[in-house]
Structures are given as structure tokens and as C-alpha cells.
Amino acid sequence: MKDLQSWEDAGEIELYYFDESGFSQRSNLPYGWSPVGKPTQMKSYPHNKRLNVLGFMSRRQKLIFHATEERVDSAKVVALFNKLAESKDPLKPAVVLLDNASIHRSAEFRRHRLDWIDKGIWPIYLPKYSPELNLIEILWRKVKYSWLPLDSYETFDRLKESVNDILSKFGQEYKINFV
């Protein structure tokens, strides 16, 4: 992994971390505070919709993502890999680190692997049970626990708008220091 990061730092490759995450109106707030005698109350949304987000993120603050209310399957993953193939620098190989989820190892996903390699995209699986190696997990955590404003959870449309706004501004207004 250090070699890949060194090659990225030298400008020899594009290095991306790929994963999916879900957002719903069930708040991800681990704790909160309010003035004495003025408790903050949040609505509970037991049966709510889910916004699924798939993304490629680089340590250089580049993010290619797709948000959908539909279930994420191999076809959606393949479509986003194809989008990366269209947008990547044609002169540099792109290495994509991803976890071992079944949708990343399906027959449909594997059928496209050689096409992607021909286009300079090299999917590489991280060791099993090692989400700490997938840096995009930091992005999902920052969005859910730090960057999403509390009022984002009031309606599903507002949640979608907030998530899309934050992800669209990643690298400009929203940054992660990968030191």
C-alpha cells in the first residue's frame, strides 16, 4: 500500500479508494448537548428511505460518486467503474482499492475486469476485514458525524440535498487531511 501511495505522490498513478455507504433519517449522532432545561428532541423515523452512495475517493481530494435511492448491486458498481474509465487521465493507470463485498466479486463485476485493465483501471482487493485500510471510510464517517447539519434529518429530500451538496464540494469546502 505504501508503494501505491508513493507512486501516487510521484504522479505515476491515480490511486482511488472505492466503497458504498448509506444515509437515512435515522440520525448518526453519537451524542449531543442542549442547555439545561431545554432538551433537544429529534423525530424518530422508524420506516424511512435510504440514500445509497457509491464513490471513488483519492487522497488528493478527488471524488467521483453516484447517489441513488435504489438498492446497490453489481450493475451499479460496474456503471460507476465505467464512469471512472471515461473520466480518468488516459495517460496514467488508476489503481482502485476496494473491499471484498459480494457485489465487488460477483460474476458480473469480474466480467468487466479485463476491459477496465485495458482502459488502465486496476481493481485491487484489500485484505478481508480491514476497513481501516479503505480511506473512503473516513469520508463516510466525516459526512455522517461531522459535516451533515442536524436539520438535514428533518426530511428525506433535505437529507439527499445535504449529502449531495457535501460530496459535490469535497476537495473545496470539505477536506480530509490524510497525513
From TrEMBL:
InterPro entries tied to this protein: RNaseH_sf, Tc1-like_DDE_dom, Transpos_IS630-like
GO molecular function: nucleic acid binding
Pfam family, one: DDE_3
Transmembrane segments: none
Domain Tc1-like transposase DDE: 15-160
Gene3D superfamilies, alphabetized: Ribonuclease H-like superfamily/Ribonuclease H
NCBIfam families given in the database record: transpos_IS630
Protein name: Transposase and inactivated derivatives
Organism annotation: Hahella chejuensis (strain KCTC 2396)
